[in-house]
Amino acid sequence: MVNKLEVAWTLVVVGLLAGVAAYSTVLVYHLDALPAHPTEYVEVIGHQWYWEFKYTNGTDVNSTYDAATNTVSGGALWAPPGAVVQINVTSADVIHSFNIPQLGVRIDAIPGRMNHFAFTVPNAAAGSEYLIQCTEFCGTYHGIMRSFLVLT
Ligand SMILES: [Cu+2]
């Protein structure tokens, strides 16, 4: 004989799980949504072991990190405060991961694939720097595969 209480608590759990599944599905689509009109598009290309940034105005820089001085040469990811930046991320060799920890930006750089992510640059003073670090082990110099987001 079926206990009515068992049926009730089973239906309550099924209802809760269905609600969580529906909410999660909607949330995932919202998290993936890109802004209709970003301030800037930047193509980010991972290389062993540096980042390349291609801007829509034709500027193309290889950003190389110097661990001794904690500086980058060649260029950086430049953006004005408050800008909405869409990054289109790929790799020229192995899998990397483009990460700006302070801003919660993290997207994989995969050869042969273009991944998209958008974020809002903080309203901080011009010259402020945010560390960019590769977070996918990609070989010998993975640890110094760094750059900076620099506010212009
Ligand atoms: Cu890497």
Description:
- With about 150 residues, the protein is α+β, with helices and mostly antiparallel strands.
- About 20% of the residues lie in helices and about 40% in strands.
- It is built from 1 helix and 11 strands, in the order αβββββββββββ.
- It has a 6-stranded mixed beta sheet with strand order 4-3-2-1-6-9, with no helix packed on it. A 5-stranded mixed beta sheet has the order 5-11-10-7-8, with no helix packed on it.
- The longest helix has 29 residues, at about 5-30.
- Copper (II) ion binds near residues 134 and 145.
Please state the structural category.
alpha+beta
**What is the count of DSSP helices, taking H or I runs of 4+ residues?**
1
Instruction: Kindly estimate the percentage of residues that lie in beta strands according to DSSP.
Output: 35-45%
User: How would a crystallographer describe the biggest sheet?
Assistant: 6 strands, mixed
Shape, please? elongated
